[in-house]
Give the backbone structure.
Amino acid sequence: MNHPLPRRPTTLLLCALFLCAVFSGCAKQEAGLQGGALFSWKQSAVLTESETLFSLMREVGLETLYQRFPDSLPDEEIDRFMKSAADCGVAVYLLAGEPEWALDVSGKPLCDTVERAVAINAGLDGRRLQGLVLDVEPYLLDQWDETSAPVILDGFLQGARSAYARASAAGLTLILCIPYYYDTLELTPQLTDLIQSCCDGVAVMNYYRGKEAEHIETEVRLAAQYGKRLIQIYELQQPGIHGLTDQNTYYHLGLAAVEENFRALELACPELPLTAALHDFEALKAVMAHE
């Protein structure tokens, strides 16, 4: 993911929440982002840092994890990780995607990812992935420009429809990551098709502090119209990474500002329930370390 809420907890309150999390096992703690989600890309989260991962999620109030499982990850490690997630009440989605996948109009890479999720679930004992989060980002392709964008996006949507049909048949929820600006690039017809026909919901990379509500007006309207989920992603990575500026990330402002903004966003978008998601686990560790 390569881009760029109102109560302010005091330091004492944050410390109290941390101590409660440490001494309460996996009991859920009430927090400002209760019910939110977290992106996690590195396999170290599965192999060596699962305890830290679930502890931080509990502390912040996050209940859903979008986790990448590299193909090389042993099945027994996935099974162990999924058991820990279930014990902590965390719903897990398979996270995957590459920009090049948008160029395959058959949707094979997308469909293969759905089949991998199905295979993972088949090998689990009573625990299962809830769905998939596909982060494809075709606008990062060298071929993407003003002329080619509609053609590339049309091809991606053709493949995404196939993947969505497979996921639905398997009882898996499919969420697509999108930037906030497709409508500003005159790609509203494609955006409409994506939300209506290609997924159960969209996770919007809405990385521009202070204009979050303005930038997702179209997405909120379409999600409400077609009964789809909408997830507001907040960037926590340090400015300078992937070209991020301070305007794109809450790295310096911290989680209190994320919570403040999300509460305001909920008030600005009453027609549709919203979910907050944080990007990502590595950045969350860094932010929590300096709060």
Summary: The longest strand covers residues 173-179.
